[in-house]
Amino acid sequence: MKSTTFLTICSLLTSILSFGQTSTEQFETESHGSTSFTDNGVIFNIISHVSVFDIQGNYPGTGWNGTANDNRYIDNSNDAQFPPSFSIKTTSNLFKVNRFWMYLSALNLDLNVAGTLTVTGKLSGITKFTQTKTTGFATSLGTTNGYTLIDLTNLNGQNYSNIVIDELQITANGAFRYVGLDAFSWVKDSNIVLGTSETKNIQKSLIVYPNPTNGPLSITTGKASEAKIYNAEGKVLKTVQIQKGNNEVNISELPAGIYYIKTSAETTKVIKN
């Protein structure tokens, strides 16, 4: 009995600790031609919008794991459709993106061409952020095997790594026709995306981000409701009306600390920096 209890506790602790941990997918254990990959227990789908994207495993040594060459990555295999665009999307967990590396070139893999890269984060089909990188791309193999770091902790001077999404879309423009992605670094979020059979209960879903926040908050819910914001002592500090879908709320006037947002269906903890 004690052994069973101990194992159960360990299992729960492992599950809890897996949330909020940074994981980097290097694709080395994925199958060539696959349109999905699994990392940290989460299944991600590779969705091709323009051009055909999947796992590339036929050219050893042409990837980049962040510190050295590796063998597998996502690419569009020189497919000529333009502008190349694909998404990394999951239906099993929400996530945040820290950084990833990209090889961006002409179809003949010439890096010395001009182009731009647009990175878009979405949640339930709603755009949560979008930025276009226009400079700073690798123009030779150099020390990174031709890959450029796309760092969402400082993309165009902004931090997007704390925004919860379920889809990351990548679109190349200009002369960038070949697109490769490797060393995908992300964080599992504790909120679960509901499966199709569970959508009837979506009114119970309350998603609040970014968390922690400096003040601005996006509150997504499946049902219109009154939301009350409590401090750690249980005192109501603010009441707002929220509609079904996405709502913008600001708590900049509140001091740093822990707060709770409560609707008729759910309560969520928020940290104010």
TrEMBL record:
Record keywords: Signal
Residue ranges annotated for the Secretion system C-terminal sorting domain, each copy included: 208-272
Signal peptide segment: 1-20
Superkingdom of this protein's organism: Bacteria
InterPro entries assigned: Secre_tail
Pfam families documented for this protein: Por_Secre_tail
Name of protein: T9SS type A sorting domain-containing protein
Source organism of this protein record: Chryseobacterium gallinarum
Lineage: Bacteria, Pseudomonadati, Bacteroidota, Flavobacteriia, Flavobacteriales
